[in-house]
């Protein structure tokens, strides 16, 4: 029978070892057939990650008022164009994605035991995740800065009601968003560009259910969805991949960053001109 879980040839031995040697949560005894063992592991992972969906929805609900507050703080003429969207179509990582990530990290790290496995599942940072999609690079910076300010006591600012509401329910780990937009070429392992933060519930019993929040532009989101389908999924499932396609996809990410950068420059120039015209009109 064909293997129901497609995987790349290089990761197949690690995945099999994860299931056969490092999974101990058998409920009705260890099945004899590989397909049944794999199916049992997938069901277990599905159950273990189900709470991430509820925690992610709670974070979206508590973050929503702050995003609205940011929008309402803008000049009236800016509010309509300040578009943002919550992309929560995949609030939790699939069992297949989890196994692939465990196997890949083990393959890269080497050694006799997986660095991330069923014993420390919560150490995987993206079991729960969603995105905030904005129009301009400057909008991404505005959103990440306002969210960071919610947790930066050193600024000595009084928190708004929306910030207080968010901070009461969740904490931002390390009080900052990682900048994967402006990282320099030597550090860039992929074409992914975003601001990435990790949130955890303030409730101690739920604090291990961390949710990864990415803030991206529409271009960055569009690139990621295409790269995921054309490159990542082909690699994960062991399909043949022309390395030139990987190179072109990475290069397209760089081109889209330039497009984002230029659009932001145009916007800033137009905003400056509009403010000058309004100021001149008031002096007349």
List the SSEs and their pairings.
Elements lengths: L11 H10 L12 H39 L3 H4 L4 E4 L7 H15 L18 E7 L2 H13 L11 H9 E3 L5 E2 L15 E7 L9 E7 H19 L6 H41 L1
Parallel strand pairs: 2-6
Antiparallel strand pairs: 1-2, 3-5, 4-5, 5-6
Helix pairs in contact: 1-4, 2-6, 7-8
Protein name: RelA/SpoT domain-containing protein
InterPro entries: NT_sf
Organism: Stigmatella ashevillensis
Give a structural overview.
This protein has a single domain (12-277), classed as Beta Polymerase, domain 2 (2-Layer Sandwich). 53% of the residues lie in helices and 11% in strands. It has 8 helices and 6 strands; from the N terminus they run αααβαβααββββαα. The protein has helices at residues 12-21, 34-72, 76-79, 95-109, 137-149, 161-169, 218-236, 243-283; strands at 84-87, 128-134, 170-172, 178-179, 195-201, 211-217. Strands 1, 2, 3, 4, 5 and 6 form a 6-stranded mixed sheet that branches. The longest helix is centred in the C-terminal third of the chain and has 41 residues, at 243-283. It starts with 11 loop residues before the first helix and ends with a helix. The relative contact order is 0.12.
Describe the structure concisely.
With 284 residues, the chain is an alpha+beta fold.
